Structure formats: C-alpha cells, structure tokens
C-alpha cells in the first residue's frame, strides 16, 4: 500500500468521527425484517417504506432503524402519531435491528461530504462507487468514499482501489 493511500485511510477515520460532515440527499436501502425484506427510500427528507405499518403511521421500524444508523446525516421522518403501544414496539424493534447490521443493505445513494477544502459528491449504485474528487479518478477510492464505508459498514460493498502502476 502506498503512502498516499495510507493518508486517505487516516483522513477517512477522521471524517467518520465527524458525521455532521456527511449529508444524504437520496438513498434506497433494504432492511431485513422479522419475516421479509422491506424497501426503504429517502429523497430529501421524504421517507417511504413498503410495509403495512408505514401506511398507517408514516413511520415504521425499518425507517427508524436507518434513522438510528444515519443520525444527523438525514432529516428524520416527519410524523404526527400518538405514542401508542404499536409505535413503542416499533421503536424497540428498530433499536434491535440497528445493532444487527447484517440486516441492512444499501442499493444506491447520493450524498455529500464536507472535505478539508470543499464539499464532494459521493454516489453509490449496486456496489459501484463514484466521487467527484481527483484522487478517486486516478485510484478508484478516496477518503470520502472510505468515510461512507466506515459509516455504513456491511451495508455497502467495498470500493475496489486501482493499483498503482509498477
Ligand atoms: Zn417499514
Ligand atoms: Zn473523493
């Protein structure tokens, strides 16, 4: 591994500790529920899920799971519900799901990350990453992509670095 790559890994660790640098515009993710997988989509603060509970309440355990994982990098679902026992059960489930990271996988997302000098756009689609920085263009990976890999862990596939020509 060359020294420039080591520098990028160090920077990614630093970025991942400052999640307020990261902002999601859109994503599609799958959360494995107790019985079957559910598709959650997010578009500039607007959440949807294909489960039944979502249609009655505007939120569900699957959305709450992603809210827990993504924290301040997304806008929470806009809901007006009464704290009934159904909702409390979903909150408990979301806490459990968020600890079982193998339940979650991202299909695609569009996001931005505040780098040292400027903001960079990072896209992900079915395992394929892109970033608008120059390092990514030459190496296929960069500190910005690695910061998302650290945040999302097993929910995304790892970007493949382009080897330095010998
Ligand atoms: Zn749901
Ligand atoms: Zn980058």
Features:
2 domains; alpha+beta; 6 strands; 6-stranded antiparallel β-sheet; single chain; 166 residues; binds zinc ion
Could you provide a short overview of the structure?
By secondary structure, the chain is α+β, with helices and mostly antiparallel strands. 37% of the residues lie in helices and 27% in strands.
Describe the structure.
The chain has 166 residues and is α+β, with helices and mostly antiparallel strands. The chain has two domains: 3-21 and 107-155, no CATH class; 27-105, no CATH class. The protein is built from six helices and six strands; from the N terminus they run H-E-E-E-H-H-H-E-E-E-H-H. It has helices spanning 3-16, 52-57, 61-70, 85-99, 134-139, 143-152; strands at 22-32, 37-43, 46-49, 104-114, 119-125, 128-131. Strands 3-2-1-4-5-6 form a six-stranded antiparallel beta sheet. Strand 5 (119-125) and strand 6 (128-131) form a beta hairpin. Helix 1 crosses helix 6. The chain is elongated, with a radius of gyration of 17 Å. The protein starts with a helix and ends in a 14-residue tail after the last helix. One zinc ion (ZN) binds next to helix 2 and helix 3.
């Amino acid at each position: 591994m060359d020294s420039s790559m080591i520098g990028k890994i160090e920077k990614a660790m630093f970025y991942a500790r400052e999640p307020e640098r990261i902002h999601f515009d859109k994503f599609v993710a799958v959360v494995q529920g107790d019985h079957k997988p559910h598709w959650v989509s997010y578009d500039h603060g607007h959440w949807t899920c294909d489960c039944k509970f979502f249609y009655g309440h505007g939120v569900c355990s699957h959305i709450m799971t992603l809210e827990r994982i993504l924290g301040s990098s997304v806008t929470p679902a806009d809901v007006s519900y009464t704290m009934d026992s159904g909702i409390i059960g979903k909150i408990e489930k979301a806490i459990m799901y968020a600890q079982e990271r193998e339940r979650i996988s991202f299909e695609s997302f569009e996001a931005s990350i505040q780098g040292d000098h400027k903001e960079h756009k990072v896209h992900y689609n079915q395992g394929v990453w892109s970033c608008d920085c120059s390092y990514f263009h030459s190496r296929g990976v960069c500190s910005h992509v690695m910061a998302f890999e650290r945040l999302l862990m097993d929910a995304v596939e790892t970007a493949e670095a382009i080897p330095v020509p010998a």
